Amino acid sequence: MEWLIGALLAAGAGTGGLLGLRQHLVRRRGRRADDEELLAAQAMADEDTTLLGEQLQRVEAPVGAMDPATRLAYQSALDAYESAKRAVPRLRSADAVSTVVDTLSTGRYALACVEARLAGRPVPELRVPCFFNPQHGPSVRDVVWTSAVRGTRTVPACAQDAARVARGESPPVRQIRVGSTLAPYWEAGVAYLPYGENYFNAAVLESGHHQHGTDSGGIGYGGL
Fold it and tell me: Mean pLDDT highest for which of 37-46, 97-106, 178-187?
């Protein structure tokens, strides 16, 4: 890099040339960081899609033996899985990640309906996914949860995590690797924002972005 700066000075580029070079390098680093975030978000979406497919495979009742309502819910979950599976390799932006997140949420809810009907339970209420880990599927109720960073607030939780909170335990939060550190999924960078932004209102996720102290310099919602 020193030889390039020297060449610019020798050519009379002076301060203006150095400033232009610096801006170019900053933009290039920014694009590289964005690309890395998007690739990581794509891997996360692929993991979630694979998990939904595995959960569908574990449904014990043959589709042909299901009643019409259960079969319709199963088909809805299967359609969501197939749609997400096609979309993940083509992800090119955070907006595209948002679409996959919505599709997976639809599939998880449909699967929860299938499981409830097969077990003879009432169909679950249509709610946002579990805050602590959206892979858990739809939340069943809101719980009061205290974070060391942001204090006490109400968040949606699945049955297992709601029980943990009731016992005074802290549910495990889904962690994403950002650079050399692990961070809650809602703080892992712009490409991950759809995982929280599409599910939770401003009472749960801060509306303002802040700089998260990671190697990649990811931007995320305020730590909870």
Answer: 97-106
Q: Residue 43 is inside which H or E element, if any?
A: helix 14-57
Distance CA 40, CA 165 (A): 30
CB–CB of 110/76 below 8 Å?
yes
Local structure of residue 191 (DSSP, 8 states): G
Quote the CA–CA distance of 45 and 51 in Å, as a whole number.
10
Q: Is 69 helix (H, G, I), strand (E, B) or coil?
A: helix
Query: Max alpha carbon distance in the chain (Å)?
Result: 80
Alpha helices in the chain (DSSP H): 2-10, 14-57, 68-87, 94-118, 159-166, 193-197
- If you ran DSSP here, which 8-state letter would residue 158 be given? -
CB 21 within 8 A of CB 8: yes
Looking at residue 25, its amino acid is: L
Name the 3-class secondary structure at 218: coil
Give the residues across from 184 on adjacent strands.
175
30 pLDDT band (50/70/90 cuts)? very low
For the whole model, what pTM was predicted? 0.69
Q: Rounded to the nearest 5°, which phi and psi values hold at 203?
A: -70, -20
